[in-house]
From TrEMBL:
<dbReference type="InterPro" id="IPR040079">
    <property type="entry name" value="Glutathione_S-Trfase"/>
</dbReference>
<dbReference type="InterPro" id="IPR036282">
    <property type="entry name" value="Glutathione-S-Trfase_C_sf"/>
</dbReference>
<dbReference type="InterPro" id="IPR004045">
    <property type="entry name" value="Glutathione_S-Trfase_N"/>
</dbReference>
<feature type="domain" description="GST N-terminal">
    <location>
        <begin position="1"/>
        <end position="80"/>
    </location>
</feature>
<dbReference type="Pfam" id="PF02798">
    <property type="entry name" value="GST_N"/>
</dbReference>
<dbReference type="InterPro" id="IPR036249">
    <property type="entry name" value="Thioredoxin-like_sf"/>
</dbReference>
<dbReference type="InterPro" id="IPR010987">
    <property type="entry name" value="Glutathione-S-Trfase_C-like"/>
</dbReference>
<protein>
    <submittedName>
        <fullName>Glutathione S-transferase</fullName>
    </submittedName>
</protein>
<dbReference type="Pfam" id="PF13410">
    <property type="entry name" value="GST_C_2"/>
</dbReference>
<feature type="domain" description="GST C-terminal">
    <location>
        <begin position="85"/>
        <end position="218"/>
    </location>
</feature>
<dbReference type="GO" id="GO:0016740">
    <property type="term" value="F:transferase activity"/>
</dbReference>
<keyword id="KW-0808">Transferase</keyword>
<comment type="similarity">
    <text>Belongs to the GST superfamily.</text>
</comment>
Length: 232
């Protein structure tokens, strides 16, 4: 049985969507990162980087959300161009890794410095807000010419996009005005949200309760780098 280690954050939700699209049976294993469960020895044996999501598939272990998307899509031969489709596959890999190396990290840092970091934070927030907007603008321009990230074909690239696009007003701190600036991102978000699998993925998330308080213990687990400041 495939095991899915997750919480309700954007990256695990990408995998929840793909699992629902594929109709694969799996065992859900919640990992409450605000309680520090990501640092448990059993979980570190699965992902030594102490992050969700991760999966185990028999004796195969895969961590990092975009690696999991690629692994499952290729295992099932769905939602990803095959090796024989070289042009389409090149585009898919490029956009998938653009989301992995750009959209995710810069969006995450935009969230951190906008909503969590202590003052002063003007320089850091300016940098990550700028880079988050720059990366999202690349996708917006691409989607102005394409129905989905790979043209007319829905794929794991759209699922990777969906995970973060759901949170974009919060990521950028721009509320509903976000969609005036990024109408094609919103169009694709709406297309994916209308899919039954996306609705099942959102419903799946609500079956589990994760700690919401950002108290001292949660901050210790979520921002362990601050311990160095406390010792200074």
């Amino acid at each position: 049985m495939l095991k899915f280690f997750f919480n309700a954050a954007p990256n695990p939700m990408k995998i929840a969507l793909l699992l629902e699209e594929l109709g694969l049976p799996f065992e859900a294993v919640p990992v409450d990162t605000r309680k520090g469960e990501q640092f448990a020895p059993d979980f570190l044996a699965i992902n030594p980087n102490a992050k969700v999501p991760a999966i185990t598939d028999g004796d195969v272990t895969v961590f990092d959300s975009n690696a999991i998307l690629l692994y499952l899509a290729e295992r099932e031969q769905k939602f990803m161009p095959g090796v024989a489709q070289a042009k389409e596959r090149g585009a898919a890999l490029s956009w998938l890794l653009f989301i992995a190396s750009g959209i995710g990290p810069f969006s995450g840092q935009s969230v951190h410095f906008r909503h969590a970091a202590p003052e002063p934070k003007d320089y850091a927030l300016n940098r990550y807000d700028f880079e988050a907007h720059r990366h999202w603008s690349v996708l917006e321009k691409h989607l102005a010419q394409n129905t989905y990230m790979l043209g007319e074909h829905y794929s794991i690239v759209d699922m990777a996009l969906w995970g973060w696009a759901r949170m974009l007003p919060y990521v950028l701190g721009t509320g509903e005005a976000t969609w005036t600036q990024y109408p094609h991102i919103k169009r694709v978000l709406d297309l994916v949200n209308a899919r039954p699998a996306a609705q099942r993925a959102e419903a799946f998330k609500t079956k589990y309760t994760f700690k919401t308080e950002m108290d001292a213990d949660a901050k210790k687990f979520m921002f362990p780098q601050n311990e160095r400041l406390n010792k200074a």
